[in-house]
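Memo subject: From amino acid sequence to discrete backbone structure tokens
Action wanted: Derive the backbone structure tokens from the amino acid sequence.
How to read it: Take the token row as a discrete description of the fold.
Attached in line: The record itself begins immediately under this heading.
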Amino acid sequence: MNTPDPKSPSVARAQFGDLGPNAPAGGGQEVNLNLILDVMVTLSLEVGRVRMSVRDLLQLAPGAIVELNRLANEPLDVLVNGVRIARGELVVVDEKFGIRLTDVVSAAERMEHIG
């Protein structure tokens, strides 16, 4: 049996407060969102997905049709840096495509996918 060496530092498990979406900001202070307003993120709209072999991928040519895993009337996913934050439907406004948000993911669900 080993006895603790009085010269070695003691080891203790780190303890952290609640880091969830309802956690208070440090010291009860408000979070300053101005610090992150200029951070660039990638916003993408996902119509659907498909898995295919490289062989099938290389055989694609103009006019080829790739069947996706979604029905035509299902909502599109709105992704920020690959994490779904909302769903919506495709719209056309002044000959440009857009999306009308129909459902926004709750803050609790977004926190589950971080990390």
Notes: Residues 40-112 form a domain with the Surface presentation of antigens (SPOA) fold (CATH 2.30.330.10). The beta strands are 43-46, 76-80, 83-93, 96-104.
